[in-house]
Amino acid sequence: MKLTAKFAGALLGAMTFSGAALASSTTPPGERAGLDLASPLPEGVYFLNIGSVGSWRGSKGDNAFDYDVPILAWSTPWTILDGRIQFLGAIPTISASAHNGIYERGLYNPFVAGQIAWNLGNGFSVSYLAGAYIGIGGTNAYYNNGAVLATDPLNQTTFHQQLALAWHGGGWNATANLMYGIVGNNDTSHVANPDYFNYDLGLTKTIGKWEVGIVGYGSTDVGRPYASYAMQSQFALGGLVGYNFGPVITQLTVSTDLVETNYVQKETRGVLRTVIPLWNPEAPKAVVAKY
Q: In this predicted structure, what is the pLDDT of residue 140?
């Protein structure tokens, strides 16, 4: 099976993260920018790894926020109203540090989700995904110069939904991924977290095995969890380059914030995605009649 770049995007679903604990939406702004999350995957099992390095808009000065997300996706043989049923799961890891001695390293909230995706014809696709980032306790802590600053910062569960739209024609690829997260209170500290809305956009051109284009994305808190909370938002632009090696696809994005509200500083980020198909059913063999 030839796996194209638009199918690579469908693997992501909602697999990556940033975190209410890290003063941002649970799903990182821009991680899906330029990805087709609407087109159904061919039936099979896929592995996707997403690695990201960059600065941290939640902390001033020299800092870093890095993550790695190994994802397993199953595109089932089942359909509902011609929509392909797909399931995804991931166990991410995270590393965040700042010049003032604050850091966090370890596992991030595991993610599970189900998705239904339709090919509408004439280059258009749409999908709906629902899932949850599962709260975990006893595995993480914020540290400040070696002292525990906060325990169990990831001990909250987020219900995550995504509506994805895509169009492909004449080598052009237009994508829009709209995400809404309902974030629960932290079960250890009982701290309330804001819900969020993210929008990741992309316009790219396929040239042979290459894909190049621009990405744009933004995020905003939805409502205040308490009266004195300062709602946060941001918008960023960047570029995308990808290459189709055949069964393996890679994509690289580099982006930076243009504007931000109530964050500490603007963020610059690079994301590398690698998609590997693990299994696809064999095509039925033709039956040859012998006389």
A: 63
